[in-house]
Specification:
By secondary structure, the protein is an alpha/beta fold. 36% of the residues lie in helices and 16% in strands. The protein has a seven-stranded mixed beta sheet with strand order 2-10-9-6-5-3-4, with helices on both faces. It has a three-stranded antiparallel beta sheet with strand order 8-7-14, with no helix packed on it. Helix 1 packs antiparallel against helix 7, helix 2 (40-53) runs parallel beside helix 7 and helix 3 (64-74) crosses helix 4 (90-97). Bound molecules: ligand T4K.
């Protein structure tokens, strides 16, 4: 019998920067008394982060949700936006906050991203943009999506909340589409406690985004748009600067945990994992596993409960589909028969714990639980 773990293991745990390193930055903040509003650490963080990520321009935010809301405003998106139901609610909520109608399109069965084959039939005269999600950090089919966008004159905003540091053949995934957004929430591969960013391709767009996250102020007396307050403060920016020095190490540790899962769960009947993609540097933000009831022998929810009884708190990200929440379920595109792959995956998935400080012995114990049943 595999023993119950002696302490709870959560789906994730944030990696914190070494306290001493952070303390140096705090002392500088205490001296300068500059706490927010585009201070020196904010500026330095934007520069270093853009360089690390291999992108031209980015603007950091207080969280990923406000980055999404602002991205839509930066491009003046209206009407209808095609998006995925298999994501965190913030993706669709950003449309709701902008009075935009979400149009849900089903996902593809391999990596659970928006299915490009199904996008065209959902386009109407009101469609202005596509908002796909690189779910779990696995890249969408960016070339096909761009071809469709170009044909119909649509904008593309990627929700890249899970895709920190993801590259395809050495090129950042954030360089695709018109804009991408990141989340630096505590639960992500790279965190600034709360935080986020918009990535764009030119200086003018960055300037507009910078205005929008600061109430619309262009200068002391000019307000160009009804912007919001979505600025990142100096403490978070400083924390981010320290995190950047360690993030490669965090990603490597996550990768080695993924490796243990892959080795130990490889031949379990009815259990499916997602493979790494050749040429892609992954973020390992999540480790999703699918349980197919008939061949695995028990339901996903039974596995979920069994893990909880053993002190392991996996999460069913992203169940239920966003399209099933009361705000959205009345939409024509929210009908489950329109979203059969999404419904299937949402009913089979559990994200297993993965984070830099997760001890190997717990990963092994967890794998034994899933192997023995
Ligand atoms: N787009 C996508 C695709 C997203 O996934 C998200 C956020 C967004 C947009 C919006 O970005 P932000 O506005 O959040 O920057 C979490 C996160 O709050 C959320 O950021 C994330 N996606 C979503 C997928 O998950 P919860 O409610 O599941 O997290 P919670 O609090 O249950 O945390 C999970 C586990 O992590 C806990 O059981 C314990 C551990 N934990 C958590 C926190 C917050 C810690 O050990 N320490 C901590 O400080 O939503």
């Amino acid at each position: 019998m595999t023993k119950k773990l002696n302490r709870p293991i959560y789906v994730t745990q944030p990696a914190l920067p070494p306290l001493e390193e952070f303390a140096d930055y705090l002392r500088q903040i205490w001296d300068s008394k500059i706490l927010t509003n585009n201070g020196p650490f904010h500026q330095q963080f934007e520069e270093e982060l853009a360089e690390y990520l291999g992108v031209k321009y980015l603007s950091v935010f207080s969280n990923g949700t406000l980055a999404l809301v602002t991205a839509l405003q930066a491009l003046r998106i209206t009407g209808e936006v095609i998006t995925t139901p298999f994501s965190f609610v913030a993706t669709t909520h950003s449309l709701w906050w902008n009075n935009i109608k979400p149009v849900f399109v089903d996902i593809e069965p391999e990596y659970f991203n928006l299915d490009p084959e199904k996008i065209e039939s959902a386009i109407t005269p009101q469609t202005t943009a596509i908002m796909p999600v690189h779910v779990y950090g696995n890249p969408c089919n960016v070339d096909k999506i761009q071809r469709i966008a170009d044909t119909y004159g649509l904008k593309v905003i990627y929700d890249a909340a899970h895709a920190f540091g993801v590259t395809v053949n050495g090129n950042s995934i954030l360089n695709y589409g018109d804009l991408s957004i990141l989340s630096f929430h505590a639960t992500k591969t790279f965190n600034t406690i709360e935080g986020g960013a918009i990535i764009c391709h030119d200086k003018k767009t960055k300037q507009r985004i910078d205005f929008l996250k600061n109430f619309g102020f262009a200068d002391e007396v000019t307000v160009v748009a009804p912007g919001i307050n979505a600025k990142m403060n100096e403490l978070q920016a400083a924390y981010g600067l320290v995190q950047l020095k360690h993030v490669d190490e965090y990603i490597d540790k996550r990768k080695s945990i993924a490796g243990i899962y892959r080795n130990m769960l490889n031949n379990v009947n009815g259990l499916r994992m997602l493979n790494d993609i050749p040429g892609v540097r992954h973020s390992y933000t999540y480790f999703p596993v699918l349980f197919e009831e008939k061949s695995y022998g028990v339901t996903r929810d039974e596995v979920y409960e069994m893990l909880r009884r053993n002190n392991i708190n996996g999460r069913r990200y992203f169940y239920p589909l966003i399209s099933q929440f009361p705000t959205y379920r009345g939409l024509a595109s929210a009908k489950p028969e329109n979203l059969s792959i999404g419904s299937l995956i949402a009913n089979q998935v559990i994200c297993l714990p993965i984070y830099p400080d997760l001890e190997e012995k717990y990963v092994i114990q967890l794998c034994k639980l899933l192997t023995k049943k």
